[in-house]
Amino acid sequence: MKLEGQVQMDGKYAGGHIKPENKAAERIDRRLKKYQNMKRLCVLALREKNGSGFDRTFTRIVREEQGEAAWATVRDHVSRYATVVTDEHPSYADLAGLNEHRQVNHSEAYQTEDGSNTNHVESASSRASSGPMSASTTASR
After folding, report:
1. Closest Cα partner for 44 from 1, 108, 89, 107?
2. Among the listed residues 87, 85, 64, the one whose alpha carbon sits nearest the alpha carbon of residue 15
3. Is 78 in contact with 91 (CB distance < 8 Å)?
4. Which of 7, 53, 62, 77 has the least CB density, counted as fewest CB within 10 Å?
5. Is 128 exposed, middle or buried (0-12, 13-18, 19+ CB in 10 A)?
6. Tens digit of pLDDT for each residue in 13-32?
7. Residue ranges of domains in the chain, CATH in brackets
8. Residue 4: which residues within 8 A CB-CB, separation 6 or more?
9. Residue 139 to residues 43, 69, 117, 128: CA-CA distances in angstroms?
10. Parallel, antiparallel, or unpaired: how do β-strands 100-104 and 83-87 relate?
């Protein structure tokens, strides 16, 4: 499957939560790799926006949101002629060598002057994580 037109890309982390200790003195820095339980995964999502009304979404589960995984995902699943739109995460920096690449700096605006945004892919990720079959809703049943 090759996505065409404008393709928005974003990563969303899921799983691997480590409950913090009650007392502040006993807490660890959960950001450090030595304290992570390696159950946390990243879902890279690609969302096609081609104007035909038949937008497609492709997801790929990777260990971390890093350049090699992003590059391979775009290489394998996006048409060479598509425009890839991402946020300014450093892992997306090398995509310019594959496709036309536009970045949205969310600290400045959610949409660039030319209309580029990542709203559709972020919406798809949000719906997937809070849908009827998500882990957060099935665990509470």
Report:
1. 89
2. 64
3. no
4. 53
5. middle
6. 888 777 888 888 888 887 78
7. 6-136 (3.30.420)
8. 48, 50, 78, 79, 81, 82
9. 20, 30, 33, 15
10. parallel
- Say if pTM beats, i.e. exceeds, 0.90: no
CA atoms within 13 A on the CB side of 68: 3
Amino acid at 63: R
Cα 73 from Cα 116, distance rounded (Å):
20
Q: What tens digit of pLDDT does each residue of 76-131 get?
A: 999 999 999 999 989 898 888 889 999 898 888 888 888 888 887 877 776 666 65
CA distance linking residue 112 with residue 95, whole number of Å: 18
Rg of the chain over CA atoms, in angstroms? 17
* AA letter at 94: D
Count of other CB atoms within 10 angstroms of residue 102: 19
